[in-house]
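**Backbone description:**
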Amino acid sequence: MSFGKGEAMSYIKPGAVEPRKYQQDIAASALEKGSTLVVLPTGLGKTIVALLIIDDVLGKGKKVLFLSPTKPLAEQHWKKLRECLTLDAEKIVLLTGETAANKRKEEWEKATIIVATPQTAENDLRAGTATLAGYGLCIFDEAHRTVGKYAYTFVAEECKKHGVKALGLTASPGADRKKIEEIMATLEIENVEMRSESDEDVAGYVKPIEAEWMEVELPRDYAELKKPLEELIAKKAETLRKLGYLFPNVKRVGKGVLMEVQGRILRDRDSWKKFRALSLHAALMNLLHAHELLETQGISTFKEFFRRMEERKEKSKAVQGILEDARIQAMLQKAALVTEEHPKLKLLREVVADKSKTYIVFVQYRDQVKKIVKELNAAGMNARQFLGKKEGITQKEQQQTIEAFRKGEFNVLVASSIGEEGLDIPSVDCVVFYEPVPSEIRSIQRRGRAGRAKAGKVIFLITKGTRDEVAYWVAKKKEKRMKRIVAEYEAGSKRERGSAGAEKTGKTGTQRETPKTNRPRGQSKISDF
């Protein structure tokens, strides 16, 4: 299929793809209007949209650069393009940091399509061993990363110099208006195309996903252990407030607030006050992390965190202050006697008990991933871990795990954040959030692993009255805000081209929400995504 003014012949192999109407419409819009940001939920075929646009660009005799943030993702796209396009295999090239520099220079000269990690592309463009002359399109996969000093921003500037159009692909550009504006300005976005699961042209391809909130009570021993942590957090936060870094109207001190505080501290020129504040900030980050582990993960993970802190050969003043505090010492003595695991573990065993179904369990912390796999297998289930390069797992091992999961060799995949972004993990019957995440981007990516080929389920494990509840509602609120902001830009881009009549209604994709009433212990249905 070809759009615009490209040659009539298609570079897509017959039968390689069966584009849906909304994918064709998005591609046609991008080719007509210029640099485009495509916001499409995970599993709805952003890569197919890219293929349709690539087909047209190739028909105009132009080259294509396809950027993806990690080597596994880049390799996945490279294989897909080779599988679907009629170009000779050597014309579609994968470049990563593992490719020798002299070899990369050679490939830039002869390839028609370069699939690369952004850091590799940036390095080659800076070194002058690559140029974007002759390129018609640059695809920025996971385009929400196009902020700050990330390599996408440099490549985008190079695109502007050579008149290369941009195609940004993302499940969510985020809920921060300033960041969305930064993404759009950096990529010189002229057109926005967003679809949600509730849009008329998409709904027929989306299987229903039932969502459940499953609640557990925090054990009494855990609640007692929290108290000294909360006292120390409040004390140190008050000192930060007195130093002028924490605003008086801030009632809840979380990691997000502390990130903003850190920026204010670093900008301060008063060195004595600054260094004192930085030490307080570091202590608060450690204390909040410990508090989070206790509330959402369990006693063993909590104790392991403090054990590692104590074993550090070089301890910062902040860490020393925590470990020497009498309240913390007393708390750790009590913690040593606590053996009851977090009730989420027992609930999870019940949730994934059906061996005829497939599950992905998303877990925030590496240690907890390993513990959960061990616990599930000890209970007679068939679970494997899926961790990233930072956790010492090679790309080959990741691929072997995914392939074994696809073949049905095991039915429970317990994944860290590596399982969220883009990787070709099979659709599953049920996605489990071991803890909700306060990020609409990550929440959308996680949910997208269910309900592709058939109806699915998403389950949130919530510790009652803790940050789990806060994180869930924060992500929901951010997702609504993101859809509203993107819809405004989408409508604006249509009006600017005299097509106000084409504006869509209902783009915010609002979903039914459960009011915060007294939920019964165990579970309660929330909504259908």
